[in-house]
Amino acid sequence: MHLRHIEAFRAVMQAGSMTAAARRVHTSQPQISRLIAQLETLTQFPLFERNGSRLTPTQDGLRFYQEVEKTFSGLAGLETAAAGIRAFSAGRLSVAAMPRLAGGLLARIVARLKQDYPDIMVSIHSGNGGAVREWLASGFCDAGMALLYDDEPGVQIEPVLTMHCMAVLPKGHRLAALPRLRPAHFADEPFVSFPAGTAIRERIDRIFTQAGVERHIVAEAGLGASICALVGMGMGVSLINPLAAREEQNNTGIELRPFAPAVPVVAALLYPPYQQRTRLVDVFSQYASEFMQREMAEFKVRSGRR
């Protein structure tokens, strides 16, 4: 017994005649007749009573049709299940990031992902760098986003793009008249710094030390948003990563300028170290990578960077 026998029988039951059934399944009436005859041989009971051109299902034929419909209902359920799997229906994704990324870029990525896959459930977990690493290393989160200034042990790293830190100045500051700033321009300027002991602080300190420039550090803050707020209040100048600059560019109290020599920062996606990625994680990664690259390209155009 083959599927073509069942399809022919079902078509006859639903259409009421061999001719109408043939039209329904796009074949000829003689082919339908042959398939029904073969099916009756295989089942070893008549499916229809034939009165001239009229077909009337037998009691056995009706019972057999009920079983056929149960099977086709099951197939329809499989089609629905497959569609749900394709759309990640009831799929869950946990993503970790530091607060500024979680509340800005990551939130926009998730919103875009949900437009295309509305049935997935995404949980965003925000914390400091140590918490993000722990959540990924333990498998509590499926993926993470981070700005890296150094190696990140204990997690899988997928670099997305390398960017350079920018100078952030109070609105109207004298240095804003320059198209690009260098360490010498910051000599004796009040400087809002990242905390001592952080990778970004060590990189920035090294650049100024090598240039022989002494800064006057007046405050420290761990987040780019906090640094921009302090700079906007006129407390000093600073260097911040470009994603923080992207988020804070509408802050009317600051201005941004390129800085050289480059202070590189890598925007990366992070994953648990020994966990195979699911298809949903792969889709999220694709969205995140494309989103980051597009937003930073647009930011470079708006900020006049080349």
Structural class: alpha/beta
Provide the domain count: 3
**How many angstroms does the end-to-end distance come to?**
69 Å
Shape: rod-shaped
Global Rg? 33 Å
Examine the coordinates and then state which fold CATH places here, giving the name of the CATH topology of the largest domain. Answer: D-Maltodextrin-Binding Protein, domain 2
Total number of β-strand segments?
12
Element order: H for helix, E for strand: HHHEEHEHHEHEEEEHEHEHEEH
Fraction in beta strands: 15-25%
Widest β-sheet, arrangement of strands: 4-3-5-12-6
Descriptive notes:
- This protein is an alpha/beta fold and 306 residues long.
- It has three domains: 3-70, Arc Repressor Mutant, subunit A (Orthogonal Bundle); 90-160 and 267-301, D-Maltodextrin-Binding Protein, domain 2 (3-Layer(aba) Sandwich); 163-264, D-Maltodextrin-Binding Protein, domain 2 (3-Layer(aba) Sandwich).
- It has eleven helices and twelve strands.
- The strands form four sheets. The protein has a five-stranded mixed sheet, with helices on both faces. A three-stranded antiparallel sheet has the order 10-7-11.
- The termini are far apart.
- 30% of the residues are buried.
- The mean pLDDT is 85.
- Keywords: DNA-binding, Transcription, Transcription regulation.
- It holds the Pfam family HTH_1.
- Residues 1-58 form the HTH lysR-type domain.
Present the secondary structure layout.
Blueprint: H1 3-15, H2 18-24, H3 29-43, E1 48-51, E2 54-57, H4 59-86, E3 92-97, H5 99-103, H6 105-116, E4 121-126, H7 129-137, E5 143-148, E6 156-164, E7 166-170, E8 190-193, H8 199-211, E9 216-220, H9 224-232, E10 238-240, H10 242-248, E11 254-258, E12 264-271, H11 279-303
Parallel strand pairs: 3-4, 3-5, 8-9
Antiparallel strand pairs: 1-2, 5-12, 6-12, 7-10, 7-11
Domain HTH lysR-type: 1-58
InterPro entries: LysR_HTH_N, LysR_subst-bd, NocR_PBP2, WH-like_DNA-bd_sf, WH_DNA-bd_sf
GO molecular function, one term: DNA-binding transcription factor activity
